[in-house]
Amino acid sequence: MIRKLLTLAALALAFTAAQAQPYPAKPIRMIVPFPPGGGTDILSRLVANKLTEVSKWTVVPDNRAGAGGTIGIAEAVRAAPSGYEMVMGQKDNMVVAPWLYKNLSYDPTKDLVAVAHVAYTPVVIVTRSDSKFKTLADVVAAARAAPDSITYGSPGNGTTIHLAGEIFKSAANIKMRHVPYKGSNAAMMDVLAGNVDLMVSSLPSAMSQIQGGKLRPLAVTSARRSSSLPDVPTVAELGYKGFDVSTWYGLFMPAGTPKDVVVTVNAEVNKLLATPEMKAAIIAQGAEPQAMTPQELETLLKTDYQKWKSIVQASGATIE
Length: 320
Description:
Family: Belongs to the UPF0065 (bug) family.
Oligomer: single chain
Radius of gyration: 22 Å
Order of helices and strands: HEHEHEHHEHEHEHEHEEHHEH
Protein name: Tripartite tricarboxylate transporter substrate binding protein
Keywords: Signal
Signal peptide: 1-20
Pfam family, one: TctC
């Protein structure tokens, strides 16, 4: 009996010691809701690798792609709020998808907690470097001369990038055929092969091919030029005043995650974003690093959530 009691006491002490270990006491899974090779995957792995290297945490990226990024978000919503599950969300699956998909299983403003903003990036319109389209004006002229003759690829239906193309078509009063893909990498391969005329892409997804001379950027869709591509004009500069479509990336955890965990992760990510090395790495990918408090990211989410409701409704786009 004494031996049993001593054994139980030892187990209890071991359990208490484990509970008292500073966070994180085990690896953290970072759900990446898009396939490998795209902008979300690139930034997710950059953050995960740097957190592992600098903070000595173990952060493991896990691609859970599909349905415009909504499958990965839904998996994060279902995860235990233990602090060991997080997801790299962005405008596509956090604020656009809820208004596009009729039967979405989550409400991002209620089912997830904002943790840390990472970066924002404009969308870029690109074509193959040997394409006949030298400028965005060339695209518009060709589309008006032969409606629906020009094709453009995107990472998938319902993404901000897809809608950026649709909004541009409306602003320019032209018709082009949208070709959705399962992620940026597949769309990129087809535009490089000449199977589609254009691609609307996040800058991180397209940056290496632009720098390698294989893609020609025609315009960025943000209100101001990208510091990564300072010579590329904005769509607004080219005569479409007020045109402004960009996307952002941020880390979220399941609702109910302890506040002290959220504060700890936010502090580590913000510390990382402040380092010259990390800033340079993010800018090299075509994104702009931007730290926020959890409250600021939550405000951004809720503001964009309502803003994109009217944009999606005006576009008439829906996905079953």
